[in-house]
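hiii so um. not sure if this is the right channel but i have a protein structure encoded as C-alpha coordinates and i wanna go backwards to a sequence. like what aa goes where. can anyone help
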Protein backbone atom coordinates (compact mmCIF):
# COMPACT_ATOMS: atom_id res chain seq x y z
CA UNK A 1 0.00 0.00 0.00
CA UNK A 2 1.48 3.31 -1.07
CA UNK A 3 0.91 6.43 1.01
CA UNK A 4 0.15 9.72 -0.75
CA UNK A 5 3.45 10.90 0.72
CA UNK A 6 5.20 8.88 -1.98
CA UNK A 7 3.62 10.86 -4.79
CA UNK A 8 3.61 14.41 -6.13
CA UNK A 9 0.11 15.34 -7.32
CA UNK A 10 1.13 18.41 -9.32
CA UNK A 11 -1.27 19.00 -12.20
CA UNK A 12 -3.33 15.90 -11.37
CA UNK A 13 -6.99 15.54 -10.47
CA UNK A 14 -7.15 13.25 -7.44
CA UNK A 15 -10.34 11.27 -6.88
CA UNK A 16 -10.49 10.85 -3.13
CA UNK A 17 -12.89 8.35 -1.58
CA UNK A 18 -13.72 9.90 1.78
CA UNK A 19 -16.19 8.85 4.45
CA UNK A 20 -18.47 11.88 4.80
CA UNK A 21 -21.31 9.76 6.12
CA UNK A 22 -21.87 12.44 8.76
CA UNK A 23 -24.87 12.90 11.05
CA UNK A 24 -27.34 15.60 9.93
CA UNK A 25 -30.14 17.20 11.94
CA UNK A 26 -33.64 17.96 10.60
CA UNK A 27 -32.34 21.22 9.07
CA UNK A 28 -29.66 19.20 7.24
CA UNK A 29 -26.89 20.72 9.34
CA UNK A 30 -23.85 18.58 10.12
CA UNK A 31 -23.92 17.81 13.86
CA UNK A 32 -20.50 16.13 14.07
CA UNK A 33 -17.73 17.26 11.72
CA UNK A 34 -15.01 14.83 12.87
CA UNK A 35 -15.04 12.76 9.68
CA UNK A 36 -14.64 15.84 7.48
CA UNK A 37 -11.89 17.29 9.66
CA UNK A 38 -9.91 14.05 9.58
CA UNK A 39 -9.57 14.20 5.78
CA UNK A 40 -8.20 17.75 5.78
CA UNK A 41 -4.54 16.69 5.93
CA UNK A 42 -4.88 14.45 2.87
CA UNK A 43 -6.73 17.10 0.86
CA UNK A 44 -4.23 19.81 1.82
CA UNK A 45 -1.25 17.66 0.83
CA UNK A 46 -2.70 17.17 -2.68
CA UNK A 47 -3.66 20.83 -3.08
CA UNK A 48 -0.26 21.85 -1.72
CA UNK A 49 1.45 19.78 -4.42
CA UNK A 50 -0.50 21.70 -7.06
CA UNK A 51 -3.19 19.12 -7.68
CA UNK A 52 -6.98 19.36 -7.56
CA UNK A 53 -9.41 17.24 -5.58
CA UNK A 54 -12.65 15.40 -6.40
CA UNK A 55 -14.34 14.11 -3.26
CA UNK A 56 -16.45 10.95 -3.42
CA UNK A 57 -18.57 9.67 -0.57
CA UNK A 58 -21.78 7.97 0.45
CA UNK A 59 -24.30 9.34 2.93
CA UNK A 60 -26.85 7.18 4.71
CA UNK A 61 -28.73 4.38 2.97
CA UNK A 62 -30.62 5.75 -0.03
CA UNK A 63 -30.67 2.20 -1.49
CA UNK A 64 -29.85 3.08 -5.07
CA UNK A 65 -32.27 5.99 -5.46
CA UNK A 66 -31.65 9.74 -5.66
CA UNK A 67 -33.34 11.16 -2.54
CA UNK A 68 -32.84 14.76 -1.47
CA UNK A 69 -32.60 13.89 2.22
CA UNK A 70 -29.40 11.94 1.43
CA UNK A 71 -27.89 14.52 -0.91
CA UNK A 72 -24.30 15.53 -0.23
CA UNK A 73 -25.29 18.98 -1.50
CA UNK A 74 -26.37 19.66 2.10
CA UNK A 75 -22.81 19.46 3.39
CA UNK A 76 -21.01 21.53 0.74
CA UNK A 77 -21.07 24.63 3.01
CA UNK A 78 -19.64 22.74 5.97
CA UNK A 79 -16.88 21.14 3.88
CA UNK A 80 -16.00 24.61 2.46
CA UNK A 81 -15.85 26.02 5.98
CA UNK A 82 -13.57 23.24 7.24
CA UNK A 83 -11.25 23.34 4.22
CA UNK A 84 -11.36 27.16 4.22
CA UNK A 85 -12.04 27.27 0.52
CA UNK A 86 -15.02 27.23 -1.82
CA UNK A 87 -16.05 23.71 -2.69
CA UNK A 88 -17.80 23.16 -6.03
CA UNK A 89 -20.74 20.74 -6.03
CA UNK A 90 -20.01 18.40 -8.94
CA UNK A 91 -23.41 16.69 -9.20
CA UNK A 92 -24.16 13.05 -9.86
CA UNK A 93 -21.07 11.04 -10.85
CA UNK A 94 -22.74 9.75 -14.04
CA UNK A 95 -24.04 13.17 -15.18
CA UNK A 96 -22.62 15.44 -17.89
CA UNK A 97 -22.32 18.11 -15.20
CA UNK A 98 -19.86 15.84 -13.37
CA UNK A 99 -17.72 15.34 -16.47
CA UNK A 100 -17.69 19.10 -17.15
CA UNK A 101 -16.91 20.09 -13.54
CA UNK A 102 -14.15 17.50 -13.17
CA UNK A 103 -12.47 18.16 -16.50
CA UNK A 104 -12.45 21.92 -15.88
CA UNK A 105 -11.07 21.62 -12.37
CA UNK A 106 -7.95 23.76 -11.91
CA UNK A 107 -5.04 23.14 -9.52
CA UNK A 108 -6.07 24.11 -6.01
CA UNK A 109 -9.78 23.53 -6.61
CA UNK A 110 -12.04 21.08 -4.80
CA UNK A 111 -15.26 19.46 -5.99
CA UNK A 112 -17.65 17.31 -3.96
CA UNK A 113 -19.71 14.82 -5.94
CA UNK A 114 -23.23 13.58 -5.19
CA UNK A 115 -23.90 10.56 -2.96
CA UNK A 116 -22.48 7.46 -4.65
CA UNK A 117 -25.20 5.27 -3.18
CA UNK A 118 -27.80 6.97 -5.40
CA UNK A 119 -26.68 4.19 -7.76
CA UNK A 120 -27.23 0.60 -6.68
CA UNK A 121 -24.10 -0.33 -8.67
CA UNK A 122 -21.97 1.32 -5.96
CA UNK A 123 -22.72 -1.25 -3.26
CA UNK A 124 -22.56 -4.07 -5.81
CA UNK A 125 -18.98 -3.14 -6.65
CA UNK A 126 -20.03 -2.88 -10.31
CA UNK A 127 -17.05 -2.61 -12.68
CA UNK A 128 -18.82 -0.46 -15.30
CA UNK A 129 -19.88 2.04 -12.67
CA UNK A 130 -16.36 2.04 -11.18
CA UNK A 131 -14.91 2.71 -14.63
CA UNK A 132 -17.23 5.71 -15.10
CA UNK A 133 -16.11 7.14 -11.76
CA UNK A 134 -12.48 6.47 -12.67
CA UNK A 135 -12.81 8.60 -15.82
CA UNK A 136 -13.41 11.68 -13.66
CA UNK A 137 -9.84 11.78 -12.26
CA UNK A 138 -6.18 11.02 -12.96
CA UNK A 139 -5.21 9.34 -9.67
CA UNK A 140 -7.15 7.52 -6.95
CA UNK A 141 -6.78 8.04 -3.22
CA UNK A 142 -8.70 6.08 -0.61
CA UNK A 143 -9.05 7.85 2.72
CA UNK A 144 -12.20 6.07 3.90
CA UNK A 145 -10.95 3.45 6.35
CA UNK A 146 -14.47 3.29 7.85
CA UNK A 147 -15.77 1.67 4.63
CA UNK A 148 -12.63 -0.34 3.80
CA UNK A 149 -14.40 -3.58 4.82
CA UNK A 150 -16.93 -3.08 2.01
CA UNK A 151 -16.20 -4.28 -1.49
CA UNK A 152 -17.97 -1.38 -3.21
CA UNK A 153 -17.27 0.27 -6.55
CA UNK A 154 -15.65 3.37 -5.05
CA UNK A 155 -13.86 1.63 -2.18
CA UNK A 156 -12.37 -1.34 -4.03
CA UNK A 157 -13.25 -1.95 -7.71
CA UNK A 158 -12.25 1.51 -8.89
CA UNK A 159 -8.60 1.01 -7.87
CA UNK A 160 -8.02 -1.42 -10.73
CA UNK A 161 -8.48 1.42 -13.25
CA UNK A 162 -5.53 3.28 -11.70
CA UNK A 163 -2.74 0.79 -11.99
CA UNK A 164 0.21 2.20 -10.03
CA UNK A 165 -1.74 5.36 -9.29
CA UNK A 166 -3.85 4.22 -6.34
CA UNK A 167 -2.77 5.59 -2.96
CA UNK A 168 -3.79 5.49 0.69
CA UNK A 169 -4.65 8.87 2.20
CA UNK A 170 -3.15 9.76 5.58
CA UNK A 171 -6.20 8.61 7.54
CA UNK A 172 -6.32 5.23 5.81
CA UNK A 173 -2.57 4.76 6.02
CA UNK A 174 -2.40 5.61 9.72
CA UNK A 175 -5.31 3.34 10.60
CA UNK A 176 -3.78 0.37 8.81
CA UNK A 177 -0.24 0.98 10.07
CA UNK A 178 -1.38 1.38 13.67
CA UNK A 179 -3.55 -1.74 13.59
CA UNK A 180 -0.78 -3.67 11.87
CA UNK A 181 1.76 -2.51 14.44
CA UNK A 182 -0.58 -3.56 17.24
CA UNK A 183 -1.40 -6.99 15.88
CA UNK A 184 1.87 -8.05 14.34
CA UNK A 185 4.71 -5.84 15.40
CA UNK A 186 3.99 -5.37 19.05
CA UNK A 187 6.31 -5.12 22.03
CA UNK A 188 5.27 -7.71 24.61
CA UNK A 189 3.48 -8.22 26.89
CA UNK A 190 0.51 -7.58 24.61
CA UNK A 191 -2.89 -7.22 26.28
CA UNK A 192 -6.27 -7.03 24.58
CA UNK A 193 -9.34 -5.92 26.50
CA UNK A 194 -12.54 -6.93 24.76
CA UNK A 195 -15.87 -5.80 26.16
CA UNK A 196 -19.34 -5.08 24.86
CA UNK A 197 -22.63 -6.84 25.09
CA UNK A 198 -22.48 -9.92 22.91
CA UNK A 199 -20.22 -12.93 22.40
CA UNK A 200 -21.77 -13.48 18.97
CA UNK A 201 -20.35 -10.22 17.57
CA UNK A 202 -16.89 -10.76 19.05
CA UNK A 203 -16.22 -14.51 18.65
CA UNK A 204 -13.93 -14.23 15.65
CA UNK A 205 -11.99 -11.40 17.26
CA UNK A 206 -11.50 -13.43 20.42
CA UNK A 207 -10.40 -16.46 18.39
CA UNK A 208 -7.91 -14.44 16.35
CA UNK A 209 -6.52 -12.54 19.34
CA UNK A 210 -5.96 -15.75 21.31
CA UNK A 211 -3.04 -16.47 19.04
CA UNK A 212 -1.58 -12.98 19.23
CA UNK A 213 -1.82 -11.74 22.81
CA UNK A 214 -0.27 -12.58 26.16
CA UNK A 215 -3.30 -11.43 28.16
CA UNK A 216 -6.88 -11.56 26.93
CA UNK A 217 -9.20 -9.58 29.18
CA UNK A 218 -12.90 -10.22 28.59
CA UNK A 219 -15.39 -7.83 30.17
CA UNK A 220 -18.89 -6.49 29.57
CA UNK A 221 -22.02 -8.51 28.98
CA UNK A 222 -20.17 -11.06 26.89
CA UNK A 223 -18.13 -12.29 29.85
CA UNK A 224 -21.16 -13.93 31.51
CA UNK A 225 -21.46 -16.59 28.83
CA UNK A 226 -17.84 -17.48 29.65
CA UNK A 227 -18.51 -17.52 33.40
CA UNK A 228 -21.47 -19.82 32.80
CA UNK A 229 -19.22 -22.04 30.65
CA UNK A 230 -16.86 -22.19 33.64
CA UNK A 231 -19.71 -23.45 35.81
CA UNK A 232 -20.45 -20.27 37.75
CA UNK A 233 -23.90 -18.91 38.60
CA UNK A 234 -24.71 -15.78 36.60
CA UNK A 235 -28.26 -14.98 37.80
CA UNK A 236 -30.12 -12.86 35.26
CA UNK A 237 -26.96 -11.52 33.59
CA UNK A 238 -26.74 -11.24 29.83
CA UNK A 239 -26.39 -14.77 28.48
CA UNK A 240 -26.39 -16.20 24.96
CA UNK A 241 -27.30 -19.87 25.31
CA UNK A 242 -26.43 -20.63 21.67
CA UNK A 243 -22.91 -19.31 22.32
CA UNK A 244 -22.23 -21.57 25.31
CA UNK A 245 -20.45 -24.24 23.26
CA UNK A 246 -18.46 -21.59 21.41
CA UNK A 247 -17.39 -20.13 24.76
CA UNK A 248 -16.37 -23.62 25.94
CA UNK A 249 -14.33 -24.13 22.76
CA UNK A 250 -12.60 -20.80 23.26
CA UNK A 251 -11.75 -21.79 26.85
CA UNK A 252 -10.23 -25.06 25.58
CA UNK A 253 -8.21 -23.05 23.06
CA UNK A 254 -7.07 -20.79 25.91
CA UNK A 255 -5.67 -23.85 27.70
CA UNK A 256 -3.82 -24.92 24.57
CA UNK A 257 -2.28 -21.54 23.77
CA UNK A 258 -1.38 -20.76 27.38
CA UNK A 259 -2.69 -17.23 27.02
CA UNK A 260 -3.61 -15.51 30.30
CA UNK A 261 -7.42 -15.32 30.08
CA UNK A 262 -8.63 -12.62 32.44
CA UNK A 263 -12.32 -12.77 33.17
CA UNK A 264 -14.06 -10.96 36.00
CA UNK A 265 -13.39 -11.97 39.62
CA UNK A 266 -16.48 -10.15 40.86
CA UNK A 267 -19.44 -8.16 39.54
CA UNK A 268 -21.45 -5.12 40.45
CA UNK A 269 -24.98 -6.53 40.24
CA UNK A 270 -28.34 -4.80 39.97
CA UNK A 271 -31.87 -6.03 40.67
CA UNK A 272 -33.01 -4.32 37.45
CA UNK A 273 -31.46 -2.56 34.47
CA UNK A 274 -31.50 0.98 35.87
CA UNK A 275 -29.15 3.45 37.48
CA UNK A 276 -31.49 3.52 40.50
CA UNK A 277 -31.45 -0.26 40.95
CA UNK A 278 -30.35 -1.81 44.24
CA UNK A 279 -26.73 -2.94 44.12
CA UNK A 280 -25.08 -6.15 45.26
CA UNK A 281 -21.42 -7.17 44.98
CA UNK A 282 -21.26 -10.91 45.79
CA UNK A 283 -17.99 -12.12 47.32
CA UNK A 284 -17.55 -15.36 45.47
CA UNK A 285 -18.26 -14.42 41.81
CA UNK A 286 -21.57 -16.31 41.81
CA UNK A 287 -24.59 -14.13 41.06
CA UNK A 288 -27.89 -15.06 42.75
CA UNK A 289 -31.18 -15.34 40.87
CA UNK A 290 -32.93 -11.99 40.48
CA UNK A 291 -29.65 -10.08 40.06
CA UNK A 292 -27.73 -9.22 36.91
CA UNK A 293 -24.08 -8.23 36.57
CA UNK A 294 -23.77 -4.80 34.99
CA UNK A 295 -20.13 -3.98 35.74
CA UNK A 296 -16.90 -5.56 36.91
CA UNK A 297 -16.42 -5.36 40.66
CA UNK A 298 -13.60 -3.82 42.75
CA UNK A 299 -11.40 -6.97 42.78
CA UNK A 300 -11.64 -7.17 38.99
CA UNK A 301 -10.88 -3.47 38.60
CA UNK A 302 -7.65 -3.86 40.56
CA UNK A 303 -6.74 -7.09 38.78
CA UNK A 304 -7.31 -5.69 35.29
CA UNK A 305 -5.52 -2.43 36.19
CA UNK A 306 -2.49 -4.50 37.23
CA UNK A 307 -2.53 -6.52 33.99
CA UNK A 308 -2.71 -3.30 31.96
CA UNK A 309 0.05 -1.67 34.01
CA UNK A 310 2.41 -4.55 33.19
CA UNK A 311 1.71 -4.39 29.43
CA UNK A 312 3.73 -2.79 26.67
CA UNK A 313 1.05 -3.01 23.98
CA UNK A 314 -2.64 -2.56 24.74
CA UNK A 315 -5.67 -2.93 22.52
CA UNK A 316 -9.07 -1.95 23.90
CA UNK A 317 -12.44 -2.48 22.24
CA UNK A 318 -15.77 -2.39 24.09
CA UNK A 319 -16.88 -1.22 27.55
CA UNK A 320 -16.51 -3.66 30.46
CA UNK A 321 -19.83 -2.57 31.99
CA UNK A 322 -22.96 -0.57 31.31
CA UNK A 323 -20.94 2.64 31.48
CA UNK A 324 -23.85 4.76 30.23
CA UNK A 325 -25.35 4.28 33.72
CA UNK A 326 -23.21 6.17 36.24
CA UNK A 327 -23.46 3.50 38.96
CA UNK A 328 -22.09 0.88 36.57
CA UNK A 329 -19.35 2.92 34.93
CA UNK A 330 -16.51 2.41 37.41
CA UNK A 331 -15.08 -0.62 35.60
CA UNK A 332 -14.91 1.12 32.24
CA UNK A 333 -13.45 4.20 33.91
CA UNK A 334 -10.79 2.03 35.60
CA UNK A 335 -9.87 0.50 32.22
CA UNK A 336 -9.73 3.93 30.53
CA UNK A 337 -7.54 5.36 33.32
CA UNK A 338 -5.27 2.30 33.39
CA UNK A 339 -4.74 2.36 29.62
CA UNK A 340 -3.93 6.09 29.77
CA UNK A 341 -1.53 5.63 32.72
CA UNK A 342 0.25 2.71 31.00
CA UNK A 343 0.59 4.82 27.85
CA UNK A 344 2.15 7.65 29.84
CA UNK A 345 4.58 5.13 31.29
CA UNK A 346 5.67 4.13 27.77
CA UNK A 347 3.23 1.50 26.51
CA UNK A 348 1.65 1.69 23.06
CA UNK A 349 -2.16 1.77 23.16
CA UNK A 350 -4.87 1.59 20.57
CA UNK A 351 -8.55 2.10 21.33
CA UNK A 352 -11.44 1.57 18.94
CA UNK A 353 -15.19 1.14 18.80
CA UNK A 354 -17.76 3.86 19.43
CA UNK A 355 -18.36 3.06 23.11
CA UNK A 356 -14.70 2.83 24.09
CA UNK A 357 -13.96 6.09 22.31
CA UNK A 358 -16.96 7.66 24.08
CA UNK A 359 -15.54 6.45 27.41
CA UNK A 360 -12.09 7.88 26.62
CA UNK A 361 -13.71 11.20 25.71
CA UNK A 362 -15.99 11.17 28.75
CA UNK A 363 -12.95 11.04 31.04
CA UNK A 364 -11.01 13.40 28.77
CA UNK A 365 -8.17 10.93 28.21
CA UNK A 366 -7.78 11.20 24.44
CA UNK A 367 -4.35 12.84 24.76
CA UNK A 368 -3.02 9.83 26.66
CA UNK A 369 -3.88 7.14 24.13
CA UNK A 370 -1.38 6.34 21.36
CA UNK A 371 -3.95 5.82 18.65
CA UNK A 372 -7.72 6.08 18.49
CA UNK A 373 -9.15 4.07 15.61
CA UNK A 374 -12.27 5.50 14.00
CA UNK A 375 -12.80 2.41 11.88
CA UNK A 376 -15.78 0.82 13.64
CA UNK A 377 -16.75 -2.25 11.59
CA UNK A 378 -13.55 -2.02 9.55
CA UNK A 379 -11.41 -2.13 12.70
CA UNK A 380 -13.32 -5.13 14.01
CA UNK A 381 -12.84 -7.06 10.77
CA UNK A 382 -9.15 -6.18 10.79
CA UNK A 383 -8.90 -7.57 14.31
CA UNK A 384 -10.65 -10.73 13.13
CA UNK A 385 -7.70 -11.20 10.79
CA UNK A 386 -9.64 -10.52 7.59
CA UNK A 387 -8.09 -8.78 4.63
CA UNK A 388 -10.20 -5.67 4.01
CA UNK A 389 -11.27 -5.27 0.34
CA UNK A 390 -10.40 -1.53 0.37
CA UNK A 391 -6.90 -2.26 1.69
CA UNK A 392 -6.44 -5.23 -0.65
CA UNK A 393 -7.35 -3.06 -3.65
CA UNK A 394 -4.67 -0.53 -2.68
CA UNK A 395 -2.12 -3.27 -2.09
CA UNK A 396 -2.76 -4.73 -5.54
CA UNK A 397 -2.82 -1.48 -7.47
P1 LIG B 1 -21.29 -3.66 21.87
O1 LIG B 1 -22.22 -2.86 21.02
O2 LIG B 1 -21.42 -5.13 21.72
O3 LIG B 1 -19.85 -3.18 21.80
O4 LIG B 1 -21.77 -3.40 23.36
C1 LIG B 1 -21.75 -2.14 23.96
C2 LIG B 1 -22.81 -2.12 25.01
O5 LIG B 1 -22.59 -3.18 25.92
C3 LIG B 1 -22.85 -0.86 25.83
O6 LIG B 1 -23.99 -0.14 25.51
C4 LIG B 1 -22.87 -1.36 27.27
O7 LIG B 1 -23.84 -0.72 28.05
C5 LIG B 1 -23.23 -2.81 27.10
N1 LIG B 1 -22.78 -3.63 28.24
C6 LIG B 1 -21.56 -3.66 28.79
N2 LIG B 1 -21.54 -4.49 29.84
C7 LIG B 1 -22.78 -5.00 29.98
C8 LIG B 1 -23.38 -5.91 30.90
N3 LIG B 1 -22.68 -6.44 31.89
N4 LIG B 1 -24.68 -6.20 30.73
C9 LIG B 1 -25.38 -5.65 29.73
N5 LIG B 1 -24.86 -4.79 28.81
C10 LIG B 1 -23.57 -4.46 28.94
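sure thing!! here u go:
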Amino acid sequence: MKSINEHNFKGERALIRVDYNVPLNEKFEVTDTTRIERTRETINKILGDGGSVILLSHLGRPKGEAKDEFSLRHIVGKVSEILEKDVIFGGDVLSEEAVTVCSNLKPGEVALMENLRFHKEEEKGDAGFAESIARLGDVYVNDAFGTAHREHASTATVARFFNGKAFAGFLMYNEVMNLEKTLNGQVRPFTAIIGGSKVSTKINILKNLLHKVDNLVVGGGLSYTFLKAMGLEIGNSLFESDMLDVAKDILKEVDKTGVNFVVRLDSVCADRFSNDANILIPNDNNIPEGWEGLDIGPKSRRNIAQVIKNSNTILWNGPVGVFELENFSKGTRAVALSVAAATLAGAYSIVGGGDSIAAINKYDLGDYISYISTGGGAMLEYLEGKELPGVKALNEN
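oh and The mean pLDDT is 96.
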